[in-house]
Design goal:
- This protein is of the alpha+beta class.
- The protein has a domain of about 170 residues: Gcn5-related N-acetyltransferase (GNAT) (Aminopeptidase, 3-Layer(aba) Sandwich).
- About 30% of the residues lie in helices and about 30% in strands.
- An eight-stranded mixed β-sheet has the order 2-3-4-7-8-9-13-10, sandwiched between helices. A three-stranded antiparallel β-sheet has the order 1-15-14, with no helix packed on it. It has a two-stranded antiparallel sheet with strand order 5-6.
- Its EC number is 2.3.1.257.
- This is N-alpha-acetyltransferase 40.
Amino acid sequence: MAPPRKRRRAPTNPIEAANRKSDADFIRDHLQPSPEWTNWTHPKSGTSYTLSIKSPAQLAQSELKACFDLIDYTSGADYRASKDGWRPAHKMREMKSDGLRYILVKKSGSPSPDAATAGKDESEVCGNAAEDKICGFTSLMPTFEEGEAVVYCYEIHLLEELRGTGVGRTLMDYLVKVAESIPIIEKVMLTCFIANADARAFYEKLGFEIDALSPVERKLRFGKVFVPDYVIMSKRVRDKRKGEGKEVLDEAGAVNEEA
């Protein structure tokens, strides 16, 4: 019989440590961006945008609402058509979760006059005309998912004016950078509605694949069939660790020493 695995308290859980950092320290240690990373120029219109990182506690109420409205604007139909439906209170609670970081894409100036859908135009979605407009964002969290250490992409949403410009890839590249900066993390992971074919194609172009954790169609009792309305996708950022004697951090921050 093999000896039982020993457990000892790790001096630091890298994921907990990352999530406790201030936004400035998180940027320095995990994004390691170029000095000009906060500025981005639209390749077609020449419009200037700014990028910033904020934890939920640092978001102004107007910024949080603008992000919430952007989710509804771009994905509300998919949520409403899904099994769980659109649950605004639940979504807002999720958006305030400890450990989340938002990367905001803002622009100054007047809203585009030709963008309107579902009864809203960009000015209503992005925010107040007197302040910078949030025209896109992603939110991420280093966390454990079914025992795997991952960077989870909670949201990524862009207004039409930003789609196909490369800024979506830029945001996703930052998630990969965060994952690569935390040694125990092997994947970036996300959830995508099956109905959102464009989003899935975008993720696949970036190297994401269906993850083993993704739900699959299965037969239930009395002839019913469960058909999932979303997939879980992931992109590996480093090879799985192999070999004996490795140390693996668990979610409680303890170390499992494998013989």
